[in-house]
Amino acid sequence: MGENNKQPAFACRQCGECCCGDKGILVTPSEAEALAAFLRLTLEELQSRFLIDSPLGPQLATLNGACVFLADNRCRVHPVKPRICREWPFLPALLKHADEFEAAKEACPGLAQGCSHEEFRLLGKAGGHTIA
Q1: What is the pLDDT of residue 24?
Q2: What three-state secondary structure class fits 58?
Q3: Distance of CA 7 to the CA centre of its chain
Q4: Which of 20, 55, 74, 76 is the most exposed place for a label (fewest CB within 10 A)?
């Protein structure tokens, strides 16, 4: 198979797996403002309906083990989703640690099984992601 036929390291399958889990998506003040504007809510309404307090700051609420904004495996706030969601899968832990990357490949069908950690790191670096 030629180089041009190689499967990309990441091609989102819109499966919603990256939106599953219980809590952990922190929201900055500017992200909260963008979410509120997008949803046509006041900041107070957004906070009471969709955010929870945590020791590290506000985070997106979850419902049945998934992000409260996940519906039919689609992000209801995609145009204004938090930075960490926009960066998936090029997160610092996955870029830095091969074992974290391998675990992510098990959970995310959009990550190419044949992609090595080094290839992934190079793609992340080329995309402007910081590798600590």
Answers
A1: 83
A2: coil
A3: 21
A4: 55
Could you give the C-alpha distances from 99 to 37, 45, 95, 104, 130, in angstroms and in order?
Answer: 38, 40, 10, 9, 18
The per-residue pLDDT for 132 is 59
User: Residue 48 is which amino acid?
Assistant: S
Distance of CA 55 to the CA centre of its chain: 21
Burial (0-12, 13-18, 19+ Cβ within 10 Å), 120: buried
Tens-digit pLDDT string for the chain (132 aa):
334 456 678 898 989 999 998 878 999 999 999 999 999 999 999 999 999 999 999 999 999 999 999 999 899 999 999 999 999 999 999 999 999 999 999 999 999 999 999 999 988 888 777 665
**β-sheet bridge partners, residue 111:** 10
What secondary structure does DSSP assign to 64-81, as a single string? Answer: TTEETTEETTEETTGGG-
Q: Kindly report the backbone phi and psi dihedral angles of residue 12, in degrees, each rounded to the nearest multiple of 5, phi listed first.
A: -60, 130
Q: How far apart are CA 105 and CA 94, in angstroms?
A: 10
- The residue among 41, 24, 131 whose CA lies nearest residue 85 is 24
